[in-house]
Amino acid sequence: MTKQAEREYLAKLGDAGAQHSLGKPFSNEDCGLTLSSIGTVMALMPPAPANILDLGCGGGWTSIFFAKRGYDVTGQDIAADMIDLAQRNSEINAIQHKAQFVMGDYETLDFTESFDCAVFFDSLHHADDPQLAISCAYRALKSGGTLITHEPGEGHSTAPWSIQAMEEFGVNERDMPPHLIADCARTAGFRQLRVFPMQHDIHEVFYGAPPPRLFSRKGLRLARRVLSMLFTPNMRRSSIMVMMK
C-alpha cells in the first residue's frame, strides 16, 4: 500500500504541492539549512564530472543542483508524475543535457556498476525495505563508488508532522538512524562507513542562542555535545553518512 501511496502523493498534494516542489529548496521554510545540507552532501561527493544516481529524487531539485555542478545525473523516482515534474524542472533550469530521469522502485532497480556515487537525500526513510534499497544502490555503484545518505534519526516516525503525513497520504515515515543504515550497508557489502552531524545540529550548537558560560551546567553539556560531534558520532540522531563500495 505504501508504494501505491508514494505513486499517488503528488496528485494528492495538487497544484500547490507541484509548485512547491518546483521551487525547492527556496520554497522550503528551512531553505538556509536545506542549502547548507545539499552543499555538505556535494562536498562529500567525488569531484565532477562523475556519474550520479539520485535515488528518490521527487521533483528533481537535488538532481538539478548536481547537474549544475557538472555531474551527469540519473534521477529515479517511483511516481510517474514526479518524473514528469523533474523533467519539467530540468527544462526550466536548462540542464536537460546533464540529467535524465527514470521511473522505478529503488528497491528493485537493475543498474549494475554504472555510477560513481549514489545519493539518498531524505528519501531512504520512505522505503518499505531499506535493506533492499541499499543493496540496489551497492549493485548500481562501480568498484570504489560512494553512497551518501542524508536521513532523519530516531523520533522522526513519532513526530507530529510525520504522523500527519502517514495518516493523510499513507506514506512511510521511518526512523532512519545511522546504526540502522550501517547494518544494512555492511550486509550489502559497503566498507569505510563514516557518520557526520546534520547541518541543523551544527547550526543549533554554533549559530543558535548565545553560548552559556563554559563551566556552567549548560556550558558543560554543550561542550560534551561538541566533543561528541567531533569524536563520537551519535548513531541514533539524524545524520549524513558516507559509505564506500
Task: Walk me through this protein's architecture.
The protein is of the alpha/beta class and 245 residues long. It has one domain: Rossmann fold (3-Layer(aba) Sandwich), CATH 3.40.50. The chain contains nine helices and seven strands; from the N terminus they run ααβαβαββαβααβααβ. The protein has helices at residues 2-23, 31-44, 61-68, 80-92, 130-140, 160-169, 178-188, 199-206, 217-231; strands spanning 51-55, 72-77, 99-103, 115-121, 141-151, 191-197, 239-244.
Describe this protein with a few key phrases.
Rossmann fold; 245 residues; 19% strand; 46% helix; alpha/beta; globular
Major beta sheet summary: 7 strands, mixed
Give the rounded overall mean pLDDT. Answer: 93
Strand order of the largest sheet: 3-2-1-4-5-7-6
Low-confidence stretches: none
User: How much helix, percentage-wise, in residues?
Assistant: 40-55%
H and E order = HHEHEHEEHEHHEHHE
Number of strands: 7
- The tally of domains stands at 1
CATH architecture: 3-Layer(aba) Sandwich
What is the fold's blueprint, element by element?
Elements: H1 2-23, H2 31-44, E1 51-55, H3 61-68, E2 72-77, H4 80-92, E3 99-103, E4 115-121, H5 130-140, E5 141-151, H6 160-169, H7 178-188, E6 191-197, H8 199-206, H9 217-231, E7 239-244
Parallel strand pairs: 1-2, 1-4, 2-3, 4-5
Antiparallel strand pairs: 5-7, 6-7
Helix pairs in contact: 1-4, 5-7
